[in-house]
Amino acid sequence: MLEPERIKKLNDERKRFGEYVLYWMQASQRAEENQALQLAITRANELDLPVITYFGITDDFPGGNLRHYQFMIEGLRETREKLTKRGIKTFISHQSPPQGAIELAKEAAIAVVDRGYLSIQQRWRKRVATEVDVPLIQVEGDVVVPVEAASDKEEYAARTIRPKINDRLDDFSAPAENLDPAKSSLDMDLEFDSVDLDDVLGELDIDRSVKPVRTYTAGTSRAKELLEDFIKDNLDQYAEKSNDPTEDYLSDMSPYLHFGQISPVYIVDRIQESESPSVEDYLEQLVIRRELSMNFVYYNENYDDFSSILPDWALETLTDHRDDPREYTYSREELEKAETHDPYWNSAQKEMILTGKTHGYMRMYWGKKILEWTPNPETGYEITLWLNNKYELDGRDPNGFTGVAWCYGKHDRAWQERKVFGKVRYMNAGGLERKFDAQKYCDKIERIEEQFTE
Question: Which stretch of DSSP H or E encloses residue 283?
Answer without folding.
Answer: helix 279-283
